[in-house]
Amino acid sequence: MKLLTLLLAVLPVLGGPDARLQVRLSDDSGRLRYAIAYDGKTLVSPSLLGLQTNEADYTRLEVVSAETEDVRDTYVLDRIKASHIDHAAVRAVLHCQNPDGRALDIEWHLTANDAAFRYLLPRDTETGSVRVLREATAFRFPEGATGFLTPQSHAMIGWKRSKPSYEEFYTLDAPLATPSQYGHGYTFPCLFRIGSDGWVLVSETGVDSRYCASHLSDWDAAEGYGIAFPLPEENNGNGTVEPAFALPGATPWRTLTVGADLAPIVETTIAFDVVEPRYESSRGYRYGKSSWSWIVWQDDSMNKADQLAFIDLAAQMQWPYILIDAGWDKEFGRAGMEELVRYARSKGVDVFLWYSSSGWWNDIVQSPTDIMCDPLVRKPEMRWLERIGVKGIKVDFFGGDKQETMRLYEAILSDADDHGLMCIFHGATLPRGWERMYPNYVGSEAVLASENLVFGQVHCDLESQNAALHPFLRNTVGSMEFGGVFLNRYLHRLNGAPDAKGRVRGTVRRTTDAAELAVAVLYQNPIQHFAITPNNLSDAPAAAIGFLREVPTTWDETRLLDGYPGRNIVLARRHGATWYVAAVNASEEQPLTVDVRAIERRLGGTALVYSTGKDGLQTGAAAKKPLSLPKDDGAVIVLR
Fold first, then answer.
1. Do 208 and 321 reside in the same domain of the chain?
2. Phi and psi for 551 in degrees, rounded to 5?
3. Residue 122's domain spans which residues?
4. How far apart are CA 568 and CA 562, in angstroms?
5. For residues 511 and 528, what is the distance between their CA atoms, to the nearest angstrom?
6. C-alpha to C-alpha distances, 56 to 99, 105, 132, 337, 393, nearest whole angstrom
């Protein structure tokens, strides 16, 4: 490290490797502030730093000295938007003290487009632990900025009192002073447009059993957005709101990704760059696609005939997995499940099983319940799962963001890895660097996901908007277990055929088949539970079935080619030497133009295009004329 000796009235300007990103520190009557500029334009206005603990008040800080070093960040990770990460960064540590002389460090990690920071607390007294009462950390933006935000919900509401579960609608391009829906601020990640000057994505990473998950408060005219801790009512009132940890210790990282355009936002890996594995695994995990009966056929599909049909579907699609959802324990029992797993494995298909996380914090009755929350029951259950050959679990309906719940996530992951089990979480919090921290973690819902398309027509009406939104927001910071790609026109088992009373049942899909195929590329998750059903083998376009056999679920590189959050998107992901480019248009006002020939020149290779023709889905080579995609339409371009 290069030590910088600072004069009392002079604070350092911290810069990224290419100096386009700068963090400017200032002293506001003893309160330490930071601001972020990119290419000389202020994207984050002077914002407070500091925190208050039960041991000392660090909301007034003086920078005593600073150290900086150039670092190279290189690692391999097979479950995120890029597999090989290699970039330059600047690490800086500000050595601070409060008016009482108590020390606190602020560590910064700066890349070309990212600024991450956290607080480091030493053990400078006999006290061995600390409770954080509040953070003074704030995020202020210039006048005229707008936000793309989803609200933090009330606690103990929704289905069986299971919220917050990060499943709310987004507001798009809203003025900063717009109140949140529930009055509790906004769920990470949060995206802000700073007029014509650029963009800022705000989130956090590195949250584990040693802290709680946080969110942004509502906008305050004087100080902007603050860091808000969980609500006392979460987890049915169990557990503390303030996090606590041993000394020396650190808070999670607060991350800001900035850019003149949206490409750095979509392509950032900062959520993974600054964290480290929490444990090593001796297991090898395989990723891929999965069939799933519940999403369209719902609870009635929890019977042997239907599960055999979806096992056979996975085998015919050459997919490695089936997810068997809630109620399997009551329908099949242990012996029946062992028989199903044996049948699946005889077909080359492995099994994920659903569990409720529930214990004492909600009213969930979907079973199995009261297993994953109890280590004395969970551990023998996982031994049984390993013995019969189950490869993963989907655990649902968690209780909130308190440190107590973070401990539960970590305990489930750790125990599962001991038995070679991958973990997917639904009804859950946002993953915060977990792909790198936990080797058997493969994705979380934490979004208004695919079941809502089945539950309400409004969600079908907004499907293309969400496809053009989540790559800019939810999926930027972590794997998103959405469970999409519907090929039924009616999201019901009968798929438009009248029932016994002559009714056509189910919500109606608005998107084209080409747009649905695009979702397979737009949404990143190493295990993808696609929503096709056995009838699609005969009633869906053969080209769509062929594409879903082929499309990968892991990626080596991701690039944003075009788009605006909630309006449209053109996104490229590379697997090996093959590029998959997905486009979706959600705009009523104007079609999305996709120049396939220009994409060929930009990325290389020869294009096979999946698009909408007069008779539905069509495939072919790149045409001279660009594609023109109306609302709810999409395309996929495969470049080899």
1. no
2. -60, 130
3. 2-273
4. 8
5. 19
6. 10, 14, 10, 55, 42
- Closest to 257 measured CA to CA, from 561, 560, 467, 572: 560
Residue 126's Cβ-side half-sphere holds a number of Cα atoms within 13 Å equal to: 0
309 with 187, same domain: the answer is no
Mean pLDDT of the chain: 97
One DSSP character per residue, 68-136 reads: EEEEEEEEE-TTSS-SEEEEEEEEEEEEEE-TT--EEEEEEEE-SSEEEEEEEE---SS--EEEEEEE-
Q: Is the pLDDT of residue 7 over 90?
A: no
Q: Which residue, 75, 65, 220, is CA-closest to 141?
A: 220
User: 466, 460, 445: which is closest to 518 by C-alpha?
Assistant: 466
The amino acid at 318: Q
pLDDT tens profile 582-612: 999 999 999 999 999 999 999 999 999 999 9
Residue 608, domain CATH: 3.20.20
Q: Two tokens at 385? A: 């799962």
pTM above 0.85, yes or no: yes
Q: What tokens does 262 get?
A: 């949206």
How far is the C-alpha of 617 from the C-alpha of 562, rounded, in Å?
A: 23
pLDDT tens digits, residue range 495-533? 999 999 999 999 999 999 999 999 999 999 999 999 999
Q: Is residue 506 part of a domain?
A: yes
Q: What phi and psi values does residue 566 have, to the nearest 5 degrees?
A: 85, -10
**How would you list the strands of the sheet with 244-246, edge to edge?**
51-53, 129-135, 244-246
Name the amino acid, one letter, at 495. Answer: N
The angle at the Cα of 354, spanning 350 to 359, to the nearest 5 degrees, equals 150
